[in-house]
Specification:
Largest sheet: 3 strands, antiparallel
Shape: elongated
Organism: Eimeria praecox
Structural class: mainly alpha
Main location: nucleus
Subcellular location: Nucleus
Oligomer: single chain
Strand content: under 5%
Strand order of the largest sheet: 1-2-3
GO biological process, one term: mRNA processing
Number of strands: 3
Number of helices: 7
Protein name: Pre-mRNA-splicing factor SPF27-like protein, related
Length: 282
């Protein structure tokens, strides 16, 4: 299996324009670029174009069996299903400075998620109720100022909610109608795009079908021509049978009488070639 650099010479791996670049620890030569697929045993299979025709139902089971056999072969080559190769082990982790910074909102949320802490609930008390200072705080000016601020916030929240209700009564129907219109337009656009893609696929399938039909006609014509040649050869061989026997008989008689020409002696009958021709055309 294509592996990474040997353990005796560790190399750094840097992403460069979609490819990965191996950089020796101390080398002035230009680093060699490679793609992750180059490390796969059968990377050339990934360049195969998809087949646009739908998979027949009777072949789905066969395809699943082929996939299972391939997975079993990979596991067998790796020494077991628990020892499958990790093709990403040599690749560096992506840099995420925003997520790694605990001072940012996303960083804090990622840290909370890593600890398994629940999401803190929103404090809605300032929008729903307030308390009047009492007891020792009844004469506390700051406590009363805080209470007044809370009351003002509640009044502002109620006023905003009232304005929102009035706006909803005045514009909700038209806004909802525009939303439905946008959804309808989006649906029509996606439907048209789907139809266009389907027509393109059908066009590809039709073109391939026409090419297959034309190729089938050419193959049939060539097959008929080959069969015609075979029949002609068979007829010729059949006609040559008596003539060959007659020639052999005449050669034998001339040889007995000693009048067979020298060139006729060299023209010997090849019985093996004759039998091969008969079997081929038979």
């Amino acid at each position: 299996m294509n592996g990474g650099p040997p353990s005796a010479a560790p190399q750094a791996i840097m992403p460069v324009n979609g490819a990965l670049r191996e950089v020796p620890p101390s080398s002035d030569s230009a680093p060699a670029e490679f793609y992750l697929t180059d490390r796969l045993p059968h990377a050339m299979v990934l360049d195969a174009l998809p087949y646009v025709d739908p998979l027949p139902t009777e072949q789905q089971q066969q395809v699943q069996q082929l996939l299972q056999q391939e997975m079993a072969a990979i596991a067998r080559e790796s020494g077991g299903p628990d020892k499958l190769p990790d093709y990403l082990s040599d690749l560096p982790l992506p840099q995420t400075p925003v997520l790694d910074d605990v001072e940012t909102m996303l960083g804090k949320e990622m840290a909370r998620k890593a600890k398994g802490d629940p999401i803190p609930e929103l404090d809605m008390s300032k929008y729903t109720s307030f308390s009047v200072p009492s007891g020792s705080k009844a004469t506390d000016v700051k406590a009363w100022e805080k209470t007044v601020t809370t009351c003002q916030q509640l009044l502002q929240h109620a006023a905003t909610a009232h304005i929102n209700l009035e706006l909803m009564n005045a514009h909700a129907a038209a806004s909802w109608q525009r939303h439905l219109t946008n959804l309808t337009q989006t649906k029509d656009r996606l439907t048209a795009a789907t139809k266009r893609r389907t027509e393109e696929e059908n066009s590809i399938c039709k073109t391939r079908k026409v090419q297959q039909v034309e190729a089938s006609g050419t193959l049939k014509q060539l097959e008929q021509t080959a069969q015609q040649y075979k029949n002609n050869n068979a007829s010729i061989i059949e006609a040559l049978g008596p003539l060959t026997a007659e020639v052999m008989d005449l050669k034998a008689k001339c040889r007995i009488r000693g009048i067979l020409p020298e060139y006729a002696e060299e023209d010997e009958f090849d019985s093996e070639a004759w039998l091969e021709a008969v079997n081929t055309t038979g």
